[in-house]
Prior knowledge:
Elements: E1 5-6, H1 8-11, H2 14-17, E2 21-25, E3 31-35, E4 46-52, E5 58-72, E6 75-78, E7 81-84, E8 87-91, E9 96-100, E10 106-111, E11 114-122, E12 128-137, E13 142-154, E14 170-172, E15 175-178, E16 187-191, E17 197-209, H3 211-215, E18 221-234, E19 239-245, H4 254-264, H5 271-281, E20 283-286, E21 289-292, E22 295-296, H6 304-314, H7 316-319, H8 322-335, H9 337-341, H10 352-363, H11 367-383, E23 393-395, E24 401-403, E25 416-417, E26 420-421, E27 428-429, H12 430-450, H13 456-476, E28 477-478, E29 483-484, E30 487-489, E31 492-494, H14 514-527, E32 529-530, E33 533-535, H15 552-559, E34 564-565, H16 569-580, H17 585-597, E35 610-611, E36 619-620, E37 624-625, H18 626-648
Amino acid sequence: xxxxxxxxxxxxxxxxxxxxxxxxxxxxxxxxxxxxxxxxxxxxxxxxxxxxxxxxxxxxxxxxxxxxxxxxxxxxxxxxxxxxxxxxxxxxxxxxxxxxxxxxxxxxxxxxxxxxxxxxxxxxxxxxxxxxxxxxxxxxxxxxxxxxxxxxxxxxxxxxxxxxxxxxxxxxxxxxxxxxxxxxxxxxxxxxxxxxxxxxxxxxxxxxxxxxxxxxxxxxxxxxxxxxxxxxxxxxxxxxxxxxxxxxxxxxxxxxxxxxxxxxxxxxxxxxxxxxxxxxxxxxxxxxxxxxxxxxxxxxxxxxxxxxxxxxxxxxxxxxxxxxxxxxxxxxxxxxxxxxxxxxxxxxxxxxxxxxxxxxxxxxxxxxxxxxxxxxxxxxxxxxxxxxxxxxxxxxxxxxxxxxxxxxxxxxxxxxxxxxxxxxxxxxxxxxxxxxxxxxxxxxxxxxxxxxxxxxxxxxxxxxxxxxxxxxxxxxxxxxxxxxxxxxxxxxxxxxxxxxxxxxxxxxxxxxxxxxxxxxxxxxxxxxxxxxxxxxxxxxxxxxxxxxxxxxxxxxxxxxxxxxxxxxxxxxxxxxxxxxxxxxxxxxxxxxxxxxxxxxxxxxxxxxxxxxxxxxxxxxxxxxxxxxxxxxxxxxxxxxxxxxxxxxx
Length: 649
């Protein structure tokens, strides 16, 4: 029994099925992403998108789609589906009777007495997608027609008919190869049988429309090149393997390869299995370097903030993989020295590294070894925030960090409309100063225990730590409101109720008084917590936007103005367990159950970037988010740890 299934009445309803997406990814950075009825609704959708080293490793879409047709007794049934403006043609989704999502996507079609099962498998360690067609029922011999739609473009762009395109292909064993532009790899389309024939009928399909792009107000139409189609005969009980890859394959080995990979695909029996599987998809290792992809399909790989925040969850909280955690962090440090030590518009991001290392130690890493390896990095980061080091942020005489760069949003709340930040938050940011304090505490503690306890570093940074502790609460606490200001500028405290204050409640450094922490948590509980994460702004605020829909400006206003974030559950659950103990256990379970209920939505089997702040909290954003997946894995870890504590009583 599959872990995730859909029925025919759901699949044939396009308003339902087009909102559900298949997402497959592998270690090379390649991905396959489309709707569950294989109609592409985003420019990012396609059967094979791969990083191209000659273009800086950025992902490019090679094979957009593959239309299937079945010919029985001279009558042709088209299983494909495309959108052209307001028209869907052909409408092959009406033949779908079943869809399963695990261990790999499987779609079953029934038409004219024929039943064909299509299974899609992205090869784990190469830029290759395999598709198997099983003809399980047929009254007579059937001819299968496969029509490839070629894109050869950056995943963020759209393509159109142009004279520069090389539209001719060439024969290779078991199929044809194409390369439409210089710099791209060849796209090798092959079968496991030499009997597949290619019929050349080159043409451009114009005006293919991506409904999700249209709904968001983006350019939404493109032209795709179709070089012709393949034909191969099938009979009941037979199967055909189709391969699309950047390297030529041995046709005779395609069936064996498919069967072997399918047998090795991890079976999903629990929600933790699903979390761990998604975590694995979000970690790529290309050219020998392991990195985290922030989300599929349009988010980038190797981003500073997202990597630091997600690395613990996607590695050791997922399956105890501490080696991958260090490899990912080591690669990040090597790649991001400019942002870590000199300048960045993500002013709190470098300071998050200390928290990730603390989690690593809490999980069981040797603290002495961790500090010996990463201590110089943490020290360098802290020193970069001293006066005169960075243009965008610097420590003030009161020990706190002031962040300001005109027309830049210097925090994780970094949406822009027409080049202007929606939430600029210039001044003293509550979360940035909380991370500053926690980083200093971590460094002073580690250096005292495993370095030079009498040295200049400990003496100077102990002084700064105490200065921050002395001035943080007076700067941010508003006793009349009963919570911490989100930020403070020359005009005073800005009292929007946002989740950023949760970071001031973390740890054992006593950044705020216990009664202050309790009051802040009460506000967060009452105004920001939902069953789909933590709201980015209280519904009581006049600027609250509870639904993430509409054109880009509307969505940017909601992005940090009311929509929820799953990743905020991690600090919230940590604080709640610390303050409430085992009494919070059932509440923690309740908070994550809703995400499992949503697995058939948005990215099928994946965990979305954000949700509407208003019920019923529909998912939006990246269909598979590294931050969301990592946070849920850490929350799952907390839940099991407290369950064990309760069971020992």
